[in-house]
Amino acid sequence: AGISDEVRSNLCKIPDLRVISRSSSLKIQGEQINIKEIGHSLNVQYILEGRIQVIGSNFKVGIECQFSSKN
Question: Is residue 28 within 8 Å of 37, Cβ to Cβ?
Protein backbone atom coordinates (compact mmCIF):
# COMPACT_ATOMS: atom_id res chain seq x y z
CA ALA A 1 0.00 0.00 0.00
CA GLY A 2 1.18 3.50 -0.78
CA ILE A 3 1.17 6.65 1.29
CA SER A 4 -2.23 7.77 -0.02
CA ASP A 5 -3.77 4.40 0.87
CA GLU A 6 -2.29 4.64 4.37
CA VAL A 7 -3.68 8.16 4.87
CA ARG A 8 -7.09 7.13 3.52
CA SER A 9 -7.16 4.05 5.77
CA ASN A 10 -6.42 6.14 8.87
CA LEU A 11 -8.96 8.81 7.95
CA CYS A 12 -11.62 6.11 7.63
CA LYS A 13 -11.15 5.36 11.34
CA ILE A 14 -12.41 8.82 12.34
CA PRO A 15 -16.07 8.67 13.41
CA ASP A 16 -18.47 10.84 11.39
CA LEU A 17 -15.91 11.41 8.64
CA ARG A 18 -16.98 10.16 5.21
CA VAL A 19 -14.01 9.26 3.03
CA ILE A 20 -14.65 8.55 -0.65
CA SER A 21 -13.11 5.59 -2.40
CA ARG A 22 -9.80 5.75 -4.21
CA SER A 23 -11.49 4.99 -7.52
CA SER A 24 -13.82 7.97 -7.08
CA SER A 25 -10.94 10.33 -6.37
CA LEU A 26 -8.96 8.99 -9.34
CA LYS A 27 -11.76 10.13 -11.68
CA ILE A 28 -10.61 13.73 -11.34
CA GLN A 29 -6.87 13.14 -11.10
CA GLY A 30 -5.00 15.35 -13.55
CA GLU A 31 -8.09 17.42 -14.35
CA GLN A 32 -7.68 21.19 -14.47
CA ILE A 33 -10.70 22.07 -12.33
CA ASN A 34 -10.92 24.19 -9.20
CA ILE A 35 -11.58 23.00 -5.64
CA LYS A 36 -15.28 23.98 -5.72
CA GLU A 37 -15.84 21.96 -8.90
CA ILE A 38 -14.01 18.96 -7.42
CA GLY A 39 -16.12 19.15 -4.26
CA HIS A 40 -19.32 19.32 -6.30
CA SER A 41 -18.25 16.51 -8.64
CA LEU A 42 -17.32 14.16 -5.78
CA ASN A 43 -20.04 15.43 -3.40
CA VAL A 44 -17.51 16.25 -0.68
CA GLN A 45 -16.95 19.26 1.56
CA TYR A 46 -13.17 18.95 1.99
CA ILE A 47 -10.38 18.01 -0.40
CA LEU A 48 -7.16 16.48 0.88
CA GLU A 49 -4.29 17.11 -1.51
CA GLY A 50 -0.80 15.69 -1.15
CA ARG A 51 2.57 15.76 -2.83
CA ILE A 52 5.91 14.05 -2.42
CA GLN A 53 9.23 15.79 -3.08
CA VAL A 54 12.39 13.71 -3.43
CA ILE A 55 15.49 15.39 -2.01
CA GLY A 56 18.56 13.24 -2.59
CA SER A 57 17.98 10.01 -0.68
CA ASN A 58 15.20 11.59 1.43
CA PHE A 59 11.68 12.63 0.64
CA LYS A 60 9.28 15.23 1.97
CA VAL A 61 5.52 14.64 2.17
CA GLY A 62 3.14 17.60 2.10
CA ILE A 63 -0.58 17.32 2.78
CA GLU A 64 -3.12 20.14 2.58
CA CYS A 65 -6.81 20.06 3.49
CA GLN A 66 -8.97 22.54 1.56
CA PHE A 67 -12.61 23.49 2.09
CA SER A 68 -14.57 22.98 -1.12
CA SER A 69 -18.05 24.08 -0.03
CA LYS A 70 -19.93 21.42 -1.99
CA ASN A 71 -23.11 23.52 -1.99
Answer: no
Band (8; pLDDT cuts 50, 70, 90): confident
Give dist(CA 63, CA 8) in Å, integer: 12
Question: So what's the pLDDT on residue 60?
Answer: 92
Contact partners, residue 54, CB within 8 Å, separation at least 6: none
- Could you tell me where the beta strands, DSSP code E, fall in the chain? 46-55, 58-67
Say how far apart CA 49 and CA 33 lie, in whole Å. 14
- Type and span of the H or E element at 6: helix 3-11
11 within 8 A of 17, measured Cβ to Cβ: yes
* pLDDT tens, position by position, 14-30: 998 888 888 887 877 77
